[in-house]
Amino acid sequence: MTRLPGSYPLALLIALFALVPVGVLVSLASDTAQLFDTHNLKVLGNTLALMGLTVLGSILIGVPLALLTAYVYLPWRRLWLIVFAAPLAMPSYIGAFTLYAAFGPGGEINHLTGIPTPGFYGLPGAALVMTLYTYPFVLLTTRASLLGLDASLVNAARTLGMSLGMSLWKVVLPRVFNGIAAGALLAALYTLSDFGTPAIMRLDTFTRVIYVEYNAFGLSQAAMLSLQLLVIVGLVLFLESRVKATRERPGRRLTLWPSRWQVNALLTAALPVPLLSIVLPLAIFGLWLVREGTGGFEFSYAWNSAYASFLAAVVAVVLAVPVAHAAVSGKAGRLMERVTYFGFGVPGIVMGTALVYVGLKLPFLYQTLGLLVLAYVLRFLPLAVGSVRSSAESLDPSLVKAARLLGASPKEAFTRITLPLTLRGMIAGAALVFLEAMRELPATLLLGPTGFETLATYLWRVYEAGYFGRAAVPGLLLVLMSGLGLALMLTGERRGEFDVTEDSKR
């Protein structure tokens, strides 16, 4: 009789626990008779339009920048990659906030220069902001695919008389279609889950209307809208699961050597993107900091953010260990792991709505830090699971077998061999959970204890109150913390690129 891995029972409990918010929403939504109405059609149309425009914009920006950073020889190539990927280091609601404050009549640009500028709001403004902060998904996934291609087919096409542009269009891009699709689907998921940008841009999408219904004590209707949003999210997640990375035998990498004026022209064409997404928000925050200082800001807000995020990171890693080890033990474990990934696809506003109801039914949890930490864990547990699983998969099974042959019990082999060797993945997973929890806005707004202000919620309060100048310190701190997350991502990307290069030399 085959003995089940010891991690399976715990992993199963954690997987079932991850499905609790969906069960709560179904139960809560059954109390309302308003399944669908004409207003829902408008909300659905706005949501799908924003998602479609964002995906289109992220592809139109991300793919050319991927080609530029992967194939074109640029001075300070690594620096340009960081510049173009930097929007990942900034929550989109910060970009929406500063873009809204900078442009339009009476905006900061108009106030400083006297030059009238158009305002950004509604669907065009939201689509612009979401594109500026999601195109790096397409950039990074497409670039990873490009770096794995052999340049020989392009060289053959050029030899047969095809122009460089046509060879890139007909030879290269079809081979990286899956990479482009993977990034586009990530951009779609981010757009569906985002709350701050549609709210600031005054666009009625599912996330904004759910928050409005919650504030109007329409918890049942908010749950119904949440389930409708989850159907769309589930469809996108299904499509994402069907996209498989294309693998080719690595060969010589294509490198283009443009002249100096061509390099300058390419960079000039690309610079408006980081100027709008990174430089403008930092400049606006810097202006507000000089003008108003730190008035009204208390550093206890930063401590609250760090404390809650740290607790979530510790709990997430503890729960991730059995799930990750179950995933590498067999098919049933991999299924349990996929179930826990569902929480990452649940928008924060949806998770918050479900757990508010849990808090109402369990008064000892309502308006407590524990309920907020629970929301963070359910949302970002997949980040910890992925990191721990990657470390566990790289372990040599013979080490554990040798320990068992030498008389170690399964528990002793795990604590003395497996756990220390997966510590690096655990630390990386905890860091990612910590940084994402620091940025989380909607779940914190709905579940934060009374008087418990974080960087994200304080930024939201000053926006609602119209005291834009007070957003400088929390905004800059959030950008700084998010930048650490980007550094982790780029470190992993650089390690992966090095491995491909080393393999190609052998």
From TrEMBL:
<feature type="transmembrane region" description="Helical">
    <location>
        <begin position="261"/>
        <end position="287"/>
    </location>
</feature>
<feature type="transmembrane region" description="Helical">
    <location>
        <begin position="48"/>
        <end position="72"/>
    </location>
</feature>
<feature type="transmembrane region" description="Helical">
    <location>
        <begin position="79"/>
        <end position="100"/>
    </location>
</feature>
<keyword id="KW-0812">Transmembrane</keyword>
<feature type="transmembrane region" description="Helical">
    <location>
        <begin position="172"/>
        <end position="192"/>
    </location>
</feature>
<feature type="domain" description="ABC transmembrane type-1">
    <location>
        <begin position="44"/>
        <end position="240"/>
    </location>
</feature>
<keyword id="KW-0997">Cell inner membrane</keyword>
<dbReference type="InterPro" id="IPR035906">
    <property type="entry name" value="MetI-like_sf"/>
</dbReference>
<comment type="similarity">
    <text>Belongs to the binding-protein-dependent transport system permease family.</text>
</comment>
<keyword id="KW-1003">Cell membrane</keyword>
<feature type="transmembrane region" description="Helical">
    <location>
        <begin position="364"/>
        <end position="381"/>
    </location>
</feature>
<protein>
    <submittedName>
        <fullName>Iron ABC transporter permease</fullName>
    </submittedName>
</protein>
<dbReference type="Pfam" id="PF00528">
    <property type="entry name" value="BPD_transp_1"/>
</dbReference>
<feature type="transmembrane region" description="Helical">
    <location>
        <begin position="222"/>
        <end position="240"/>
    </location>
</feature>
<dbReference type="GO" id="GO:0005886">
    <property type="term" value="C:plasma membrane"/>
</dbReference>
<keyword id="KW-0813">Transport</keyword>
<feature type="domain" description="ABC transmembrane type-1">
    <location>
        <begin position="302"/>
        <end position="489"/>
    </location>
</feature>
<keyword id="KW-1133">Transmembrane helix</keyword>
<keyword id="KW-0472">Membrane</keyword>
<feature type="transmembrane region" description="Helical">
    <location>
        <begin position="467"/>
        <end position="490"/>
    </location>
</feature>
<dbReference type="GO" id="GO:0055085">
    <property type="term" value="P:transmembrane transport"/>
</dbReference>
<dbReference type="InterPro" id="IPR000515">
    <property type="entry name" value="MetI-like"/>
</dbReference>
<feature type="transmembrane region" description="Helical">
    <location>
        <begin position="120"/>
        <end position="140"/>
    </location>
</feature>
<feature type="transmembrane region" description="Helical">
    <location>
        <begin position="339"/>
        <end position="358"/>
    </location>
</feature>
<feature type="transmembrane region" description="Helical">
    <location>
        <begin position="307"/>
        <end position="327"/>
    </location>
</feature>
